[in-house]
Amino acid sequence: xxxxxxxxxxxxxxxxxxxxxxxxxxxxxxxxxxxxxxxxxxxxxxxxxxxxxxxxxxxxxxxxxxxxxxxxxxxxxxxxxxxxxxxxxxxxxxxxxxxxxxxxxxxxxxxxxxxxxxxxxxxxxxxxxxxxxxxxxxxxxxxxxxxxxxxxxxxxxxxxxxxxxxxxxxxxxxxxxxxxxxxxxxxxxxxxxxxxxxxxxxxxxxxxxxxxxxxxxx
Length: 218
Description:
Blueprint: E1 4-7, H1 16-31, H2 37-41, H3 48-59, H4 65-83, H5 91-100, E2 104-108, H6 113-122, E3 131-133, H7 146-155, E4 162-166, H8 169-177, E5 181-184, E6 201-202, H9 209-213
Parallel strand pairs: 1-2, 1-4, 2-3, 4-5, 5-6
């Protein structure tokens, strides 16, 4: 029986991956780097230290990753403050459904605590979450299961009694390794043949998952 739900954030709850990509593309174009969406996809769902290595491998160890990451983050914050954060279809509906049934909810994201809280506050969804587990709270990034296991522990739930909502391949691998019931709502990257057996429910949007998870909730 499901007693808790653990959510990824970027690309799942909010259409933030698109904003991040657009900021990086603009910055890299201005600096004269050969950059595209296919390269950006390699960084999705990874912590910044892992992303730094991907940039170094492509552009060299003298690439000013942290300077550019800070610039892109500032661009992101200013844009979201001005335009609001793009919320994925069905998010509030799903969170309300879970809360009405006393399901505890955690965030499990590779994003920093500061940015995660900013996103949740500006979208008015922070109130739904019982705990936040962010990239700087764990030693190992996805696909390691640490972030999901930490979330379950903080919620006082057994992993097998947790739903895990993810949009990325590494996220599904992480949640599956943690022993959770996995729900994938793909964003940029569709499920591969490798991870299809790891997905309990594959949905087109968050609202679609409600009917699928109902039998698991008392």
